[in-house]
Amino acid sequence: ALVAQAAPVERGSGYGLFTFAGGMGAALAQGAGGWLYDHAGRAVPFLIAGGCMALSALACRYVSAPYKPPAIVPLDQIAPL
Asked: Within its chain, how far is the Cα of 42 from the centroid?
């Protein structure tokens, strides 16, 4: 929903870019994690991943889309008897 709000006109391009960025991040993170494991020590990649998860948790807590409650539709309009 956030991608659709960020790119309302070209929604398909927005979703494509979002998916591409996630895939590239996952692909690059594997190599970077392996390099860090070999050169900086066993714990470093896990500490960095934990820090990223903590930052993500804070972002989820403090950055959110405005809540819009769903519209209430009378039942007889959905399925008239």
From this structure: 27
Question: Do 42 and 33 form a contact (C-beta atoms < 8 A)?
Answer: no
pLDDT of residue 9: 79
Considering only CA atoms, which of 34, 54, 53 is closest in space to residue 44? 34
Q: Which residue has the tokens 């470093």?
A: 44
Write the pLDDT tens digit of every residue in 33-65.
Answer: 999 999 999 999 999 999 999 999 998 888 776
Q: At what angle do helices 11-40 and 44-62 cross, to 10 degrees?
A: 150
C-alpha 3/C-alpha 6 separation (Å) is 5
